[in-house]
Amino acid sequence: MRTEVYAPAGQTTEEVEAAWAEEIQQRLADVDAGVVMPVPWPEARRRILAAANGRREAR
């Protein structure tokens, strides 16, 4: 499995990894605080496939 992160122009891989680590921590904090609710994979998959097919699914 490949694990390297491809950095946009002007950023190092380390900068990108640090930014993702910060993003992940913020997302986890949002879940823990009840700011967002996780969506079970079957529901997320259904929504993703619906969006890919140009439909907007009711939540």
Automatic annotation (TrEMBL):
It holds the Pfam family Unstab_antitox. It comes from the Bacteria. This is Addiction module protein. InterPro entries: CHP02574_addiction_mod.
